[in-house]
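Reopening closed ticket. The problem is back. First fold of the pair:
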Amino acid sequence: MEVNADLHIHSRFSGATSRNMRIETIAEQAPLKGLQLVGTGDALHPDWLKEVLALEEVEEGIFRRGETSFILTCEVEDTRKVHHLIILPSPSAAEELRERFSRYSLDLKRDGRPHLTLRGEEIAEIANEVDALVGPSHAFVPWTSIYKEYDSLRECYGSARIAFLELGLSADSDLADTIAELQSVTFLSNSDAHSPWPNKLGREFNRLRLRSLSFTELKRALLRQKGNRVVLNVGFDPRLGKYHRTACIRCYTHFELEEAEELKWRCRCGGRIKKGVRDRIREIATWDEPRHPEHRPPYLRIAPLSEIIAQALRVSGVYSSRVQGMWRELVTAFGSEIRVLVDVEIEEIAKVGGEAIAELIRRFRAQDFEIREGGGGKYGEIIFNRQKKEVKRSQLSLDNW
């Protein structure tokens, strides 16, 4: 079986997170996006774990509400402010991990993403001891990532085992596979969603080949055992990520790395300049071009359907009633956002959404657009050409992988 999974989200118990991050809302929204499996996030928070455990446990470590299955996950911050994603095998493992971490944190009952006075290696060792899977979250972002603080995995994790590396919105496998030490590592593409709405939940996800839906089968997929594996990473064009380019965090002006260094990382407006993912990867890259190992799955670049609809309707803001109404109409007609973006015939989309939306989806599939790159905390933007072009579609549909 193949399962679309977003394994990194947060509940309403994490800071700067929507109050709508509730089990019932997430479970309702996930199938509309095309997801079958979602990480719970925040599994160390006692109140959130209690809500998760009220669900039916249908398989080893798998809980379900409606059409959506959940697996226990959490994210923690270490003493160097590096974030780590942990995937847990059972409620007892979550409770044991909370107990182990409680000696090193004052946040476990206050924040779904707790700060720990532990190093990355210590966190990974404790996670491994409870049979959890652990790896770096959004590995390249300039605030809370492993490659912001370290030049290698070993510097952070020592000899402790990691099961994966999460790419983050500003990187993809083309960028990450310029780094030699990552050749043997499984890549994950997750949303890190703080909101359940369609431009956040599932904006990045993984297609997994499993024999059944359980923690053991997921573990085998991430470790590439017994034929289980990640068969597709789906996510942003990294240029759309809000930390892709080196840029000022106040006025969002982009800088080349050498210019930022000459300015001593202070913009002319007085704002701080943050090193972008593109430049950070270039600093630590082994090769100029990616070298994908044989096990590496394709990476399919997508963008939120609501943003395409907003441009087609010439509406400012993806949360407007017109955009959300049309999004729901298209998704209801064709089953999921992903099917609308990459699979459904353009003529069929036009019958439901109209010619303007169908045309922009056609251009999106054909990669007939420009991108205003993101940086400094501001997302990039897709800019569709004014002139219609006959461009052959450059991305295959999900059914082709």
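Second fold of the pair, where the issue appears:
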Amino acid sequence: MGIYRDLGRNPGIFRVLISQLTARFPFGMLSIIMLLHIQHAFGDYTSAGVILAAESVGQAISGPLTSRLMGRLGMRRVLAATSLICAGLLTTIAFVHLPLMVITALSFFMGLTTPPVTPAVRTLYPRLVPGNQISALFSLDAAAQELIWVLGPVVAVFVSSQFGTTAGLCVAAAFMMLGGAWFISSPAFDQVRLPKARSNFGAVLLRPTVLLTTVIGFFFVASFAAIEAGVVRAFAPTDGGSAHASIESGVVLAIFAGGSLIGGLIIGHRAVRPWSILLRILIVLTGTLACLISLDAWWLSIVLFIGGLGTAPTFAAMSSIIGATVKFSETAEAFGWIGTGQLVGVATGSALAGIAIDAIGANGAILVSGGLLVIAAVIAALSVRQVPDLKGRDIEPPPETTTLTIPLP
């Protein structure tokens, strides 16, 4: 663990890590809270799926676009504007009872103004630590990120079950505003200037590693949204009684997060090899499919903890690949596309899980999660030649190159 201790010797690095996690935390809460909020308002999970799908479309447009704008307008300006607008729309949905179509439109614009925190911070990281520590930083970030995607729903379920979904949405908006302000005020933004990308918008997707990690990230994160919805449904009260069962689902998801955190710390910093992503996905798939054996809380806690051991290491591997193969001027847009894939994955996984739950119950969502992971594993297996072997290498972006005209004598 000495490698993580060495990270602390870089000034301000932990402030950047913690503040950006706080700013991103709402996006681990929103899929579940919106699912519960809309289901309570309209009486079915399919309506909630429509709302989440609209948000995902907005996020699909927003991710790479706002990331690209950071190179033109500056990181702070883009992050501040999107945080204010997105939190305002979220608060409106929380307090105002509106027709389904109106909420759908608001959800689309909420997705469109999603703050590009992830591409911003992952662009900053390689400039804040030496090249031989970037892998460890990506690993630590990935481990902590799982507290967003898996522990976030725990907070969402607890707040919603105890105080209502309106309160849950307000808590998410507060995290977005306060965490965003803390992150934006970091001195790291004064040390790093993101250069304007010279390539055309979207051209970075032509890089095999960017396209690969974007697609795998979509299916990988979609599977988590589905399994989370399935766990919530498995313990949801059916008689209108106490919220004890919902809290039980939160405990199971917290253990899932614990497995991911431990896996990230002990595995995630290891050098990426061509088969690394596939092997780590298979760990998660094993734990997910085992959930079909029983919906008992103890059993789910054990198998999801095992599955979680591969979660953060997979995210760390994808970040390391981008850091080693994409130019610095294109890094923000690359992570923007990857972030879009993951955020859309959350909404898509929740939507598919909602439909499956309406059809066959909690096991339907687990089957959806397993199917999405199988697709991610197949893609990883077919793409091993595109994954660089980073063993023994520092993670540094390729040099910026331009065409020079040399005058003849």
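Update: turned out to be a display glitch only; the data is intact. Residues 16-187+202-386 form a domain with the Growth Hormone; Chain: A; fold (CATH 1.20.1250.20). The longest helix spans residues 328-360. Please close again.
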